[in-house]
Amino acid sequence: MGQTHPKPETYFKPNSDKSKSYLFTNLPPAPRMYTDNFWRKGNDAGRFSDHAIEALNQFRQLKLELLESDNEKELKIRELCMKYRYTRIPLDVDKDGYARGFFLLESISYDIYGEELKEYGETLIICIGIEDSDALMYLGGSGKLYISLDNDPLKVLYNYKDIGARSSDVFQNTNY
User: Fold this and answer.
1) What confidence score (pLDDT) does residue 130 get?
2) What is the superkingdom listed in this entry's lineage (predicted)?
3) Fewest Cβ atoms nearer than 10 Å: which of 16, 44, 111, 167?
4) Is the residue at 119 inside a domain?
């Protein structure tokens, strides 16, 4: 039998070092699951508004897999980005305890085109925002959420339905 851990939202114990009150401490080891309530309660830097949680839930409900054409997918993604532009939505808590999120932006000219799409097995990849570390966030027509820092190759975080709901190896095992 494996070790059991309490739900993540029970871990809002204030950090004893007041200079680091923005860090989440005593979280169970990754992989972790997060609830909307976890993000609402947050801490000094990791609290998200009801508007952000609404955007997060709308993002999870895009239903890209039900759309047949890339044009339909692109339209739906861009409508969501426009409706919630500049909203910071949660992603994960990284290995150092920082709450990670990203800002949805309505139109960024860093979409992926041509041969690069084939490299990722996609027919559509749209730049949808900027992560806290200034990394660009992308959403593929397949539903994969990608991140790229400093023109690095795209890294898959997870499926868009899992955004803000589970931890990603990228934030747990790299220096993003």
Assistant:
1) 94
2) Eukaryota
3) 16
4) yes
Question: For the whole model, what pTM was predicted?
Answer: 0.83
- Residue 13 resides in a domain: no
The whole-angstrom separation of Cα 58 and Cα 63 is 10
Full domain range(s) for residue 160: 28-173
Read off the pLDDT of residues 133-171 as tens digits, 9 standing for 90 and up: 899 999 999 999 999 998 889 999 999 999 899 888 888
pLDDT for 169: 84
Q: Does a structural domain hold residue 159?
A: yes
Domain count, the chain: 1
CB 52 within 8 A of CB 90: yes
* Tokens representing residue 115 in the block: 């041969």
Domain presence at residue 18: no
The amino acid sitting at 12 is: F
Token reading at 149? 């820092």
Place of tokens 């290995």: 95
